## 1
Amino acid sequence: MIRIAHHKMFAHPLPEGHRFPMLKYELIPEQLLYEGSIEQEQLFEPGLLEEEIIVMTHEKAYWEKLRDLTLSDREQRRIGFPLSPELVEREVRIASGTIEAAISALRHKIAFNVAGGTHHAGRFWGEGFCLLNDQAIAANYLLNKCLCDRILIIDLDVHQGNGTAEIFGKVPQVFTFSMHGDKNFPFRKEQSDLDVPLENGMGDEAYLQLLEQHLKKAFLIQQPDFVFYLSGVDVLATDKLGKLALSKAGCKERDRIVLQYCKDLGVPLQISMGGGYSADIKDIVDAHCNTFRLAADLFG
């Protein structure tokens, strides 16, 4: 059974101007349930994490400033949100959901977090609406618990996973692979193990060719026994921030390539949904739902 972490009332801790794109986290499971792609029993609400798990990844001083709401004004501006207890709890639950999904994937080959993909958070900073790095926290959890040995993080959000790259820059057990807009946020990039910068306006054919080429390279180099996949849909041509030109069909084919690769090699896979900022929320929700539909078709 494919398990899916979801989060009720997800947008409510956010400032008014940021709630619209976050509505997708409530609408995605509703749509999947409505159309019969998933059953209610597949959904679970994550709990909170112990602090010792968070500080396996983030510096203790940074976490304590988050927890105690004492980040400086400058640090909060870098994040993009004013801090609140609800916002911090939200991020902790996101990370918890990704850990629980990763554990489920070890048993069932694939699992999802409807949220997550908070890849701009580094060891000692938050950035770009990301406070804690969910997939990095989950990867370190699996390594610490000796549940896997070699991890590949595939980041296909349109923005570079700079926080993830910084966290694992000197950790050979984790290979970071990011395909992202070269002239898009963050404008100061970190160095992933494999970076593929993309020109503005790139469409389906060129994008998918690059993905096939570099995904094969990443798997050959790392030989992973676990994969984290960040499947942001801000690569769509309709996205207000993405600057790429993928069609919805191209985005679905991107997901199929990644999922098929993991299935063929028998590598467990956890998926966090990442960004999506199209003007019509239906485009965002449908593109994300395509990822779940593919998983149901491929993994049953």
## 2
Amino acid sequence: MFSHLKNIETAFQHIKRFSYLLIAACTLICGFAVYKSYQFSTQAKQHIYLLANGKVLEALAADRKDNIPVEARDHIRTFHHDFFTLDPDEKVIETNIGKALYLADESARNEYNGLKEKGYYNNLISGNISQRLRIDSIWLDMDQYPYAFKCFAVQTLVRATSTIHKVLITQGYLRNVSRSDNNPHGFLIEKWATLANRDTTISP
């Protein structure tokens, strides 16, 4: 009888250990499944699908910190393009300058007001002069905030009789602001100044 009870107790101990192992295995499997599901969900959220001209295009989302230098350079490029790309039309000038002024502080507005007082934009209109800008390079210091930059570009003034090419070098700082429709990159140019703006070539 005692032997029978001992066998029952031994069997119970085996079943108990087996149950613990089974519970532990189920817990590990469930934990692994939850982890992989979360990982898959995170990866899926990083993929964005765009519909363009009837075609589905896939884009990959990334953290802003990974794109700060790219966005900063594009912000600088967009500002200079809008500020210096002008045609002999008052509406075009107002539109382009207006878009540029959303991307910078009062230093850009002061530059605009100074040029306006000197009659610069009136001369473009009266002389039928178109102004274009080609940016050669942008130096950006991401080690200190606000981020210092220098922009190296070629400014071209096209008139009926000649074309003037100028070297344009500007500098300033970038600080973070909220994104908006008028400022999609979320930067603001501060202490913007022109270091050089001199003629290089004049061609007929």
